[in-house]
Structure formats: C-alpha cells, structure tokens
Design brief:
Layout lengths: L1 E5 L8 E5 L9 E11 L1 H7 L16 E9 L11 E4 L2 E2 L19 E2 L7 E5 L3 E3 L6 H4 L2 H15 L7 E5 L6 H10 L3 E6 L5 H7 L3 E4 L7 H7 L5 E6 L3 H10 E9 L12 H7 L2 E4 L5 H12 L7 E6 L3 H10 L5 E5 L1 H4 L6
Parallel strand pairs: 10-11, 10-13, 11-12, 13-14, 14-15, 16-17
Antiparallel strand pairs: 1-2, 3-4, 3-8, 3-17, 4-5, 5-9, 6-7
Helix pairs in contact: 3-4, 3-9, 6-7
Length: about 350
C-alpha cells in the first residue's frame, strides 16, 4: 500500500511517498481502508519534533481518520466489513477506574490512533464510531478531534445553558468553529474572537452573534465587560491558551467558567490568585473526546447542527503542501488528505 512516511523529524519535505507493508492486526483491532485523514496543527508539531509523546520514527502520521472497515480482528463484535467509521485519537481499556467512571479520556492504558497518511490503517475497535452514509469521509475525519472536543467543552465541561454568554477564542480553528456552532445551538449568545478582520463574516455565517477582532493581542476584556453591563461572559472556551488568556479572563463574569481546550505556544500565564477567587471563577481543563461524545457529535453532524468547515482536500501525495497550508494558518477550516485512489474518485478541491 502507498503511504507517506517520515523517517525523522523535519520540514514538510521530510515525507517520502512510498510502498509500505499492509498493517498487521491485533484481535481487538479493525483495519480501515482510509477514506480521508485530517491534517491538524498537532500533526505539524509531531512532524517538526516539538511534540514527542508516543511519537517514534519512522512514522506514518495522521490521527484524524475516516474510512471503511476492510478487515476485522478475532474479537470484533461492533463492526462488520464494509461499515463506514470515523475515529477518536485514542482507544481506552474500558476496565480501569477512569474508564469505569465516565472518564475514559484519562485511561492510563489508552492506545494512540495513528497512521492515516496511508491507504490502510489498523485501529483499536474502541476508538471507532459508526458513520451514516450522508456524512462524507472528508467531513467525518475531523469530527472527533474538532467537534467532539468542542462538544466535551461546551456541553459536558462548561455545561452551557440557555441565555448565557459564551466567548470562544481561536474561533476560526478546528475546535473553535464547532464550539461556536454548539454554544449557539445550546441557546447562548456567542462572542467569537479572531485575529483577522477577513474572517469576521465567515464567523457570523457559522452562527456567532458578535465577532471580536483582536489586533496585536489587545485586551478587549474591559470593553466587553462594559458592553455586557459591567459583568462579563458566563463561559470562555479558550482554544488558543496562554496568548489569549489575559483578555479572555478579564472578560469573564463573576462565577464564570473558563475552559482550557488548547495551547498553541507553550508560554506561561501569570495571574494573581486573588483575581480567581474575587471572580469565584472555575478554571476547567477539557481533555479529548470520549466514544459516546463522538457518537453524539456524529449525530449532531447528521442533523446539520455541526457543520465541519473543510478548506481544502488534497491527495496524499501532496502531504507536504497540506502541512505548509496548516502551518500558514491562512485558511478557515480544515485541511484534509485522501489516498490518491480515493481522491481520483470525483473529489473537487
Ligand atoms: Zn481504562
């Protein structure tokens, strides 16, 4: 089978398109014929050597996978050959203390899903979810790491309610877009933060009530609080991290919930603890997506409540170009690659 292989960390040109051996299968795994694979910033930092957890080289990367079940392991009961599925980033054991208490994303026996930059990939059954026919692979592959995490943040961590105000940082990103869509659907008034004036209309189009264009890291917190009658927003869904923190925390209302979903730069944040207790703020970490959350995400996408934004679909042989596009962050929406044989079957760019 054809695959994009990286033999060491490096620039986008590090990928070699070559013949690789067909994946081996364990009893609790399925082999997917890859329909599409999302290319995320996480892939970029794996490729350039910044992100090292569970990474070794040579590597067939790609963790956002959708495809058709081609082979099933001896223990598989949930899937049959021919089923369409999408994946989450990890499988969980289902048996440990975390898994048994609805906290499977913390499972210590979790296994990474990886290998979507190829024609076939073996994944643990636990990491896969059935997909209805009407969701194309190029939308489905990004549901878990994007919309699934947003669902975890908006519904299950922040518990957003009707009539609340929600601020989403990095609103044009892979988690930001579905967070805006879900917060609006939940009955909240949504403030979307972006650095680019060019993306204002697109954010209004996906459901934001108000767009804040944050130029040069300016602190919009006080002015937003003033606009909201001196209080602030009930919930922050922060997909950016340290660089977004000061303004977003300033914008938070008393008893507000601040959800940390992403960290793009690795910088520290400084805060006087008194600011946290004066606000009675709740600081909440959002971790990944569970299988049930991904199933719910697929259902919401089927109803059109979540609409993944796909900027570009490229054949796998142009993986270097896909990585350059993700690095440049020039597009709103996700970059997706498909094996060239799949791509040739009538896909448009
Ligand atoms: Zn477990």
């Amino acid at each position: 089978m054809l695959a994009a292989v990286a033999y060491q960390p490096g620039p986008p040109s590090v990928f070699k398109i070559e013949e690789a051996s067909f994946p081996e299968i364990k009893p609790d795994e399925i082999i997917l014929k890859v329909g599409a694979c999302g290319v995320s910033y996480r892939d970029v930092v794996e490729r350039n050597g910044t992100y090292r957890r569970d990474v070794s080289f040579p590597s067939i990367m790609g963790i956002e996978i959708a495809g058709t079940v081609a082979v099933i392991g001896d223990q598989i009961s949930r899937f049959s050959i021919g089923d369409r599925v999408c994946t989450k980033a990890f499988s969980s054991c289902g048996q440990c203390r975390y898994c048994r208490t609805g906290r499977e994303t913390t499972c210590r026996q979790r296994r990474v899903v990886r290998g979507g930059y190829a024609e076939y990939v073996a994944v643990a059954e636990d990491a896969a979810v059935l997909l209805p026919d009407q969701i194309p692979f190029e939308s489905a592959c990004v549901l878990g790491p994007g919309a699934g995490v947003a669902l975890n943040a908006v519904r299950d961590t922040a518990h957003v309610e009707i009539g609340e105000t929600v601020l989403v940082t990095g609103a044009t990103g892979g988690v930001g877009v579905p967070a805006v869509q879900l917060a609006r659907h939940a009955g909240a008034t949504v403030y979307a933060v972006t650095r680019s004036e060019d993306k204002r209309q697109a954010l209004l189009d996906i459901g934001a009530h108000h767009v804040i264009v944050q130029r040069n890291g300016e602190n919009y917190g006080k002015s937003l609080r003033a606009e909201l009658g001196g209080e602030g927003v009930d919930v922050v869904i922060d997909t950016v991290g340290s660089r977004a923190f000061q303004a977003a925390f300033d914008a938070l209302a008393p008893h507000g919930r601040y959800c940390f979903v992403g960290e793009l730069t690795g910088e520290e944040i400084n805060i006087n603890p008194a600011r946290i207790f004066f606000k009675r703020a709740a600081l909440l970490g959002v971790g990944s997506v569970s299988r049930v959350q991904l199933e719910d995400t697929v259902a919401l996408a089927t109803q059109g409540i979540i609409q993944p934004q796909i900027a570009k679909v490229l054949p796998l042989t142009r993986i270097a170009e896909a990585h350059r596009l993700v690095e440049s962050a020039s597009e709103m929406g996700r970059i997706v690659v498909k094996p060239d044989t799949e791509y040739a079957q009538g896909e448009t760019e």
